[in-house]
């Protein structure tokens, strides 16, 4: 038998046709699976990937066109060949316009079948090479310590790659657990300061009475307990980078001293009389809206503008769609290796619960959940019972809807439209991925999108 040349999924409701094709293709060295209909095909595609899909056009229930549309929604570059009877050639040509690679007329002629498959796999090879090249280009604008394919994360990677080598101050804004310090470290590692220290301090964790000493150091005897001279974070990081996490928690008096240090490029230790010149890059982070804090008088406007030269907005995990899957799989591998427990992955029911959860603690919470689940797993896969209660309880159907109906009632269609938009955003606007999140079929969701006039933002007509 020839070496495996690629994988093919055959979709045809005629058992005899599937059997004949399977025999021919296996003799040619292809890895072949066959199913009788669209539903079974989509189930197979949930479990594994195929290089090529051969589907009959006319079948009982959903047609080959329905399958083509679902496949194109999930992966526009998936190679599909349509098989059709003589009287439906026009429909096959229409399928090619919608993205099918080619069509084969029944009854299939062996030599033509083999030739068409060879052409298809030549195209598949070119597409694969193109994807590899694109991946190499994308890796130039990624952060090795941060995983993510969502466009919002791609934008973060792009900004980091452009500004890392500069000396500009950077403000990183995002909820707790989104990876603000990882981004700060990536900026430092991509700069000319990479061989100098990176010093981080959480402004919310240091009492107001001690934060000046932590940042600028102190002289012996400058306050009770100061038994020796100590240098602060700024001196320790000279030539490198200082990362001020939760800068919004810093008191206003300390903000004035920090502003002076940034402007004058020098600091003075607590109790000292000598100004010490320093060369440090300031990176800061917050989970607060500092613009609002300045209007309330809780944050100095002049310091805000000093820190906000470059702004990076880190999206919460609930807005990053398929990144939940990428991160969860990475953490499973990480903690199964660290613990020596042979967990291979996450079951589909458990994964559905992870996708439906809102992750208020973001990536940090997801990592904690997966670490615990690996330790609790009773089999090679994480099951729903291995997940903590906060994840499973939120998705439990018996708990009812998670809000109270207001006395004045609701605009149900607006609510439905909003939920659909949320699902599409989570699924990166891929109908085939969003439909399961809503418990709908592909066609039902497609109908509702058309009904409400919902379109991907960049495709909406400009006014």
Automatic annotation (TrEMBL):
Ranges where the Sigma-54 factor interaction domain occurs: 146-375
PROSITE patterns on file: RESPONSE_REGULATORY (PS50110), SIGMA54_INTERACT_1 (PS00675), SIGMA54_INTERACT_2 (PS00676), SIGMA54_INTERACT_4 (PS50045)
Keywords, alphabetical: ATP-binding, Nucleotide-binding, Phosphoprotein, Transcription, Transcription regulation
Modified residues (4-aspartylphosphate): 56
Gene3D superfamilies, sorted: 1.10.8.60, 3.40.50.2300, Homeodomain-like, P-loop containing nucleotide triphosphate hydrolases
Domain Response regulatory: 7-121
Source organism superkingdom: Bacteria
InterPro entries (alphabetical): AAA+_ATPase, AAA_lid_NorR, CheY-like_superfamily, Homeodomain-like_sf, HTH_Fis, P-loop_NTPase, Sig_transdc_resp-reg_receiver, Sigma_54_int
Alphabetized Pfam families for the sequence: AAA_lid_14, HTH_8, Response_reg, Sigma54_activat
Protein name: Sigma-54-dependent Fis family transcriptional regulator
Organism: Oryzomonas sagensis
Lineage of source species: Bacteria, Pseudomonadati, Thermodesulfobacteriota, Desulfuromonadia, Geobacterales
């Amino acid at each position: 038998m020839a070496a495996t040349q690629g994988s093919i999924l055959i979709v045809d409701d005629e058992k005899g046709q599937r059997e004949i094709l399977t025999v021919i293709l296996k003799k040619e060295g292809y890895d072949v699976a066959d199913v009788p209909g669209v539903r079974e095909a989509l189930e197979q595609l949930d479990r594994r990937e195929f290089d090529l899909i051969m589907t009959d056009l006319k079948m009982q229930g959903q047609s080959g066109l329905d399958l083509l549309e679902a496949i194109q929604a999930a992966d526009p570059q998936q190679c599909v060949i349509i098989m059709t009877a003589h009287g439906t050639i026009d429909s096959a040509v229409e399928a090619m316009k919608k993205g099918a690679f080619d069509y084969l007329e029944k009854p299939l002629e062996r030599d033509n079948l083999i030739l068409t498959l060879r052409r298809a796999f030549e195209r598949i090879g070119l597409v694969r090479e193109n994807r590899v090249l694109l991946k190499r280009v994308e890796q130039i604008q990624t952060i090795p310590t941060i995983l993510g394919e969502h466009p919002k994360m791609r934008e973060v990677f792009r900004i980091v790659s452009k500004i890392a080598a500069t000396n500009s101050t950077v403000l990183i804004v995002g909820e707790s657990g989104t990876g603000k310090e990882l981004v700060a470290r990536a900026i430092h590692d991509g700069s000319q300061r990479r061989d100098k220290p990176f010093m981080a301090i959480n402004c919310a964790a240091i009492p107001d009475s001690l934060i000046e000493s932590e940042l600028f150091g102190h002289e012996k005897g400058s306050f009770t307990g100061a038994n020796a001279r100590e240098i602060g974070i700024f001196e320790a990081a000279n030539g490198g980078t200082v990362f001020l996490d939760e800068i919004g928690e810093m008191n206003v008096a300390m903000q004035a001293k920090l502003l002076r240090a940034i402007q004058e490029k020098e600091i003075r230790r607590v109790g000292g009389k000598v100004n010490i010149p320093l060369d440090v890059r300031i990176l800061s982070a917050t989970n607060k809206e500092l613009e609002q804090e300045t209007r309330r008088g809780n944050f100095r406007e002049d310091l805000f503008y000093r820190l906000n030269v470059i702004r990076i907005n880190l999206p919460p995990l609930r807005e990053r769609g398929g990144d939940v899957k990428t991160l969860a799989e990475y953490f499973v591998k990480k903690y199964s290796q660290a613990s020596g427990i042979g967990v291979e992955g996450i079951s589909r029911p458990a994964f559905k619960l992870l996708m439906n959860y809102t992750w208020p603690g973001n990536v940090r919470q997801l990592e904690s959940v997966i670490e615990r689940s690996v330790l609790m797993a009773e089999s090679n896969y994480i099951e729903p019972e291995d997940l903590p209660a906060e994840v499973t309880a939120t998705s439990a159907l018996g708990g009812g809807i998670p809000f109270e109906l207001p006395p004045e009632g609701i605009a149900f269609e607006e609510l439905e439209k909003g939920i659909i938009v949320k699902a599409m955003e989570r699924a990166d606007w891929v109908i085939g991925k969003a439909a399961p999140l809503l418990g709908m079929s592909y066609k039902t969701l497609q109908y509702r999108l058309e009904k409400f006039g919902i379109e991907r933002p960049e495709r909406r007509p400009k006014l």
